Each structure stands twice: as structure tokens, then as C-alpha cells.
Amino acid sequence: MPILTPQYDAAVVIGRFQPVHNGHLHLLHHALERAAMVIVVLGSAFHARNTKNPFTWEERAAMIAGAMPPGQRERLRFVATRDYYDDRRWSAEVRRQVAAEAGSQARVLLVGHFKDASSYYLRHFPQWQLETLERAGDIDATDIRQVWFEADDLEVSLDVLAPMVPPSVRHYLRAWSLLPHYAALVEEHRQLRKYQAAWAAAPYPPVFTTVDAVIRAADHVLLVQRKGFPGRGLWAIPGGFLDQRERLMQAALRELAEETNLAVLDVTLEEALVDVKIFDHPDRSARGRTITHAYYFDLRLEHLPEVEAADDAAQAVWTPIDQLAAMEASFFDDHFHILDTFLNLTGTD
Fold it and tell me: What proportions of the chain, in percent to the nearest 5, are helix, strand and coil?
């Protein structure tokens, strides 16, 4: 493919690619025309599989590579970035990774498409030249995932998707559906659709309020393993929804007691409160717009109080803080990032 002028050292395409579709290839082909190297930034990396992000970043890189001819494939570089739910941290990490691939003085072109309000991230890189393309057909990854997860006959559904995804991705989706992950995500999709249908008659989309309790003691934090959907089997911070007649702190202590039976008096917890932060990213929860108030308690104990799982927790476990980073891909929603905010697990400011 010829490279048109002006020449850039690198072109950058950012996306989740869940899954890769023809609209993504439209961006990639344009980027390959504009620069010798194309850096593909794979977002939502190191995240637990869920209905919005079913594929790991390695699987998405393989999908992209498989959809490109060899001569173009060799010019692609893949980098993965986590969702920090913090625009400043996220954009700084993207710039750092691009500089590591292309050089700190590289002339960089950012290629993208303003799909909707979620595309605001394209404005976070004023130091790069931005080229935006029109939408390549009526293609949306959310619709693709819905067809795939709701397939009564997989082959028929894949035929429906044929105009939207390259043939190699259709083959990938067919093979991937044989893995245990697929059946679990189909069930999670069904449960989420049922959950969202319960609110369909509301006069406007609901905004949910939740609370979470980060409990630290003896260089451990208290985690629960979720018993039900969404996120069955994933690790989470103890917490839940605010009741109608509750104050936020009261709700956090109630949820903590209900899920873990933590053997610590409420007054002791209140005295151990270190910080409170609000986590309100619009995409932090698959259930809908959910704003959580996270309370960080440091008990400053050398022993671990007794706990016992209850309510909707399958387990309640004291987990060493130095093991949390290795568990990142096993956390529900943005709970790893809540812990990271309080405990600096990723070593970045």
C-alpha cells in the first residue's frame, strides 16, 4: 500500500476492538497510507472478561493481525493500556507507550472517528496531528456482540454479521464460541438484559448509587468473591446499593457486615476512616450509570479480624496487598482501579 504525503513517523489508532470489524479496518488502512508504522492502542486491557470486553488484548491483536495482509501486518505495532477511569492517567500512559515504540521526537498522526460522546478521548492528544474519518457503514461493535451473544443458531448469526466483520473474524468468533468463556458470557448478557428491562419503563435512564468499603489490616485488604451475575466468580470490594433511607457511610458499613461479617465494631471502623472518593465514570459498570462512594479504612492492626462470607458473597478473604496487581484481570467492574487509587498498585501517579 503506498504511503501518501505528508509523511509521519507513526500513525496511531486507538480502540477496544471488541470485536474487530470493518470500520476498524477502514481506520487502519487509512493509517497505513499515512505512515510507515501504525501503532494500535488496545484499550480496556488487563480487564476481566465481560459482555462489553469479552476478548483479551492478545486475542484482539490476533484478530487484527489475521485480518490484514502480510505486508501490512508487518507494519503494525500493538500496545495495551488499561482503563484507569482517569483521563489524565490514561492519556499519559498512551503517550508513553507510543513514544516507546516510535521515539520521543516522532511525528505522530492520530487517526480516529467521532462515533459518539465516548469518542472525546481523541481530543486528549493535542501534540499529535488528528485526522478524523467518516463512519464506514452502519457498523457498531455493541450490535455485533448482541447478535453474537443472542444467537439461537450461531451460523445464522455469523451470516448476519458477514457484511460487518472480515471473514477471518467470523472464523475467530465461530471458534471462540466453543470455549467455556462464551457460555458464561451469554448467560451474563441474558442476566444484564433482564436487569435493564426491569428499568425500561422509567421516564428517564436511572442513575444508581452504590457504596464500597476498602478495608486494610496487616498489609492485607478484604475482598469478596461474587456469587451471582454480573461478574460471578470475580473478586470485588465489599459493597452494594444504597437503600432509600440510608446515609452513605451507614450503607457502606451495612454492606460490609452483610457480605463479610467482619468482626470489628462500627465505631472502630469509623475511627479508622482514612479517605472517601467518588468513582463516577459513565462506563464503569455494565449494569448502567452507577456512581459509587468508596470508603477507605485502615485498621492499623497486626492481626486479621475474622470474616465469614454471607449475602451475595461466595467468599470473604483477606488478600495480601502485594498480590493484588497480579489479580487485576480477576476483578469486577473497576474495583481494581478503586484499590489502585487508594493503594497505588500500578506505581503511577
Answer: 40, 20, 40
- Of 342, 349, 337, 333, nearest to 85 (Cα)? 337
Q: Do domains 8-182 and 208-343 have the same CATH topology?
A: no
* Per-position DSSP letters for 103-124, written without gaps between them: -TT--EEEEE---SGGGGGGGG
Say whether domain 208-343 belongs to CATH 1.20.1600.10: no
E runs forming strands in 115-253: 129-132, 208-217, 220-226, 235-236, 239-241
For residue 187, what are the CA distances in angstroms to 30, 142, 173, 192, 232? 38, 17, 17, 9, 10
Query: What does each C-alpha distance from 151 to 157, 174, 177, 237 come to in angstroms?
Result: 6, 11, 11, 33
Question: How many percent of the chain have pLDDT more than 90?
Answer: 87
Those residues whose C-beta lies under 8 Å from the C-beta of residue 314, and which sit 6 or more positions away, are 224, 225, 226, 227, 233
Closest CA to 318 of 331, 304, 334: 304
Assigned superfamily of 8-182: HUPs (3.40.50.620)
User: Quick check: 105 and 128 in contact, CB under 8 A?
Assistant: no
Q: What does pTM read for this prediction?
A: 0.92
Mean local confidence (pLDDT), 212-218: 98
> Residue ranges per domain, the chain?
8-182, 208-343
Quick one: cell of 123?
Answer: 481530543
